[in-house]
Amino acid sequence: MTQVSGETINHNYILNLIQVFIPNHYEDTELNLKARSEVGQYIEKLELKNPQLASLMVELWEDIQKKPNTYIGKHITHLLDELIYKTEKERMENFVATWQVSFDSLNFLVKNWRSNLDASKKQNGEDAMIKTSDYVAYRTITENPVSKLKYHRSIREAVYEMMIEEILPLRER
């Protein structure tokens, strides 16, 4: 196995290390202890830089170790992409349930998010998502709702927070 610079934790390298453990055939399921340890060390380093992505890799890595035969012939990159997609969708569903906005409009906003755009400028689809919001439904299901005057601004702040803290880190590769 090759060395990776101590400063750069390349998630593709980690994925390639994990791919070694996915057997091509049912009889190839014995895992090398040294390589297991190496995967764990690289994931720990990634966790310092990107804990959200590292937690998904840990989840996938632990499952592969427990049930290697389930992953026979599968590609780790595709498995991670599916896990990221599922996680993003769960985050968006939680956001929709909390703020009572349309899933489709939020999905459009998330998929078209421009991380290099100044925070004072609106993202594509931001106004459309705000227009789908339902304050009455939000107020009904929320224990301590914000006032109607602060509702739209609170949605904007919450979507920015969700993107910065929960979704964009999963896209950093």
Architecture overview:
With 173 residues, the chain is an all-alpha fold. The two termini are 21 Å apart. The protein is elongated, with a radius of gyration of 20 Å. 65% of the residues lie in helices and 0% in strands. Mean pLDDT is 86; it is low at 1-7. α1 runs antiparallel to α2 (33-49) and α3 packs across α4 (76-99). It is built from 8 helices and no strands. It has helices spanning 11-19, 33-49, 51-66, 76-99, 103-111, 126-131, 135-141, 148-171.
Please state the CA-atom Rg, rounded to the nearest Å.
20 Å
What is the N-to-C succession of helices and strands? HHHHHHHH
Shape: elongated
Portion in helices: 55-70%
Task: Explain the layout of strands and helices.
Layout: H1 11-19, H2 33-49, H3 51-66, H4 76-99, H5 103-111, H6 126-131, H7 135-141, H8 148-171
Helix pairs in contact: 1-2, 2-3, 3-4, 4-8
Q: What would the keywords be for this entry?
A:
8 helices, elongated, mainly alpha, 65% helix, 173 residues
Quick rundown:
This protein is mainly alpha-helical.
